[in-house]
Amino acid sequence: MDALTIENLCKSFDGKPAVRDVSFAIRQGEIFGLLGPNGAGKSTTINMIAGVVRLGAGQITAFGYDNQRDYRYTRRMLGVVHQEVVIDNFFTVDQALRLHAGYYGVKDDPAWRQLLIERLGLEPHLDKVMLKLSGGLKRRFMIAKALIHRPQLLILDEPTAGVDVELRHGLWEFVREINRQGTTILLTTHYLEEAEEMCDRIAIMNHGELIALEDTHDLVRRLSNRQLRLWLEQPLAEQPAELKNYSPQLKEDGRLLLLNLPAGESAGHLLNQICSLGLNISDIETDQSGLEEVFIQLTGMKGFN
Amino acid sequence: MMPRTPDKFYPWLPFWTLLRKEVLRFCRVSTQTILTPIVTASLYLFVFGATLGERLTVLEGFSYAQFVIPGLIIMGVINNSFANTSSSLFMSRYLGGIVDLLVTPVSPPQFILAYTLAAMIRGMLVGTVVLMISTLFATLPWEAPLFAILMAMIASFLFAQFGLIAAIYAHNFDTLSMYSNFVILPLIYLGGVFYPVSILPDPWGKLSYLNPLFYLIDGFRHAIIGVGDTSYLVAFGVSSALAIGLFIWAAWLIGQGYRLRS
Predict the structure, then answer these.
(1) How are strands ordered across the β-sheet holding A57-62?
(2) Quick check: bond before B203 cis, omega within 30?
(3) Alpha helix locations (H) across A164-290?
(4) Quick check: A161 pLDDT over 80?
(5) Is residue A225 predicted with pLDDT exceeding 80?
(6) Kind of pairing, strands A4-13 and A16-26?
(7) Which of B29, B106, B257 has its CB closest to that of A103?
């Protein structure tokens, strides 16, 4: 059984489509990245899963249960870290965490609560009201709050937006840890390098549509260009015309030949062709672009960072 | 550190938690939510009980303090029940905290019930303290105490619903304050808190019967001093019908997630 199944999901705001016929499934135990430029429909999709936004059309199933009909069950299975910082200024960190488990119909478990407090470094701030917390602490509190009822699927909607590098790394390490323990993760992030590193599979949305959904490594391998850097024993005076399809460039006084290997084409085929031209290679380097280039290629955007 | 399978689900725990949170919320700002309304009501009691009260008589056989105290009690109940639901829900909407509730298994009936009960606790608490202070100024006959409590509870329930509705429709703090300043306040003052509507000349006397708050105030006062402009049955019937009507309205809005879920 999948952790989450989304079928033909649609949503419009004031007649303007925000999510168009999106379908995908998230397997139990995986880290699934939902990426896309601003306004792509990621947060709307996540908010429909969480129950904050009503479904326009389609169906969402969490752990086999419909999130409309069986919402009391499905919401118990989900933990949500919202993109916007959501806090209640009336309560201290400790009071808010104690209350939050109850909203999910789960009795407060002091041991689990304490563990979250320790792992997220909230111990010295338990008696502070939310208003007094720094931005990073508020983010950490929101993660603790989302996990307090032990959800099976944790939804992180840009949890590291606006937080410093050290905290980001700490948070991702924590996310990896709870994933290793069995919690499925659905995340969106603007940091594509982190998404590439973190996610088992990635879906990319643009203009409300799902335009890619694949294993992260397959996606990057299939869609990103690789560059071959060939160091030649004898320098070339001009670019070989036979290699014009690979956008050749000469550098280092003709001793370095750069060739772009299109996605899906094998390097062996190109090397055979080079040998047949009588070029003697002293060294080879390959340079593969990452998710960011795939993202730009698919969405036509210039990335987030 | 395994987030193991979720623990046993207690279906009514979300309701009790929300109720507890709502009560804690108004207790944390008790100067504003409890003390201020009590001081305001005490000032009214002092003005109408200890000073002007001696020189005024609007109802044969009763001092003005005896007449006005039931009205002041019910006014405290109404204002505070409305203020609790309207400010809490509107702040949640305005500051975005409402999404914390929307993602939880709190059902719409639990949502309404928790907000309503918290508002009733605050309203009845303020009413009780005003009643206790009022004993310094006058002795009330308490003709039908159970009916008086029932009318106070209906008033509190009714305005808790109205507070929910106002919080959902309000676009900003200005709109929200319009409900209390331009709807509730005039209806209270014209509903017979400070005078019996029977002394008004026509058409004002007859028009007062169109004011729904008149039935709450008159019914409550009738139960306490034994004299009223309407019967118990009419006061109870009109107030209950209005309370049920507003409850259905609030329940529909919250059930639909109107302006709560986009």
Answers:
(1) A16-26, A4-13, A57-62, A65-66
(2) yes
(3) 165-180, 192-198, 216-223, 267-276
(4) no
(5) no
(6) antiparallel
(7) B106
Mean pLDDT of chain A: 87
Is there a contact between B6 and A82 if contact means CB atoms under 8 Å apart? no
Query: For residue A301, is pLDDT > 80?
Result: no
Question: Domain A225-288 is in which class?
Answer: alpha beta
**CB A115 to CB B1 under 8 A?**
yes
Least confident of A51-60, A123-132, A191-200, B69-78: A191-200
> Which of B3, B17, B28 shows the shortest C-beta gap to A151?
B3
- The C-alpha angle A68, A74, A75, rounded to 5 degrees, equals 95
- Cβ-based neighbours of A202, under 8 Å, separated by 6 or more: A32, A33, A34, A35, A195, A196, A212, A213, A214, A216, A219, A291
- Average of per-residue pLDDT across A248-256: 88
Query: B176 to chain A, minimum CA–CA distance in Å?
Result: 20
Mean pLDDT for A169-194 is: 88
Domain boundaries, chain B: 14-22+30-256
Architecture per CATH, domain A4-221, reads as 3-Layer(aba) Sandwich (3.40)
3-class DSSP state of B67: helix
Q: Which amino acid is at B95?
A: L
Q: Which helix (H) or strand (E) holds B9?
A: none
Q: Would the CB atoms of B100 and A182 count as touching at under 8 Å?
A: no
pLDDT means per 10 residues, chain B with 262 residues, are 63 95 92 89 82 73 88 94 95 89 94 97 95 89 94 97 96 91 90 84 83 94 92 95 97 93 87
Residues of A in contact with B87 (CB under 8 A): none
Q: Is the pLDDT of residue A28 over 80?
A: yes
| Inter-chain CB proximity B261 and A115 less than 8 Å | no
Work out the mean pLDDT of chain B and round it to a whole number: 90
pLDDT of residue B124: 96
Query: Which two tokens mark B105?
Result: 């298994």
Helix (H) or strand (E) holding B257: none
| Neighboring chain A residues of B257 at a CB cutoff of 8 Å | 54
Residues 6+ apart with CB under 8 A from B27: B33, B34
DSSP designation for B104: S
Q: Which residues contact B74 (CB under 8 A, 6 or more apart)?
A: B127, B151, B152, B155, B193, B216, B217, B220, B221
In terms of residues, how long is chain A? 305
- Give the distance from residue A276's alpha carbon to the nearest chain B alpha carbon, in angstroms: 58
Predicted confidence at residue B259, as pLDDT, reads 92
- Name the residue ranges covered by the structural domains of chain A: 4-221, 225-288
Tokens linked to A125: 């701030």
The pLDDT of residue B250 is: 96
Its ipTM equals 0.85
For residue B18, the chain A residues in CB contact (below 8 A) are: 103
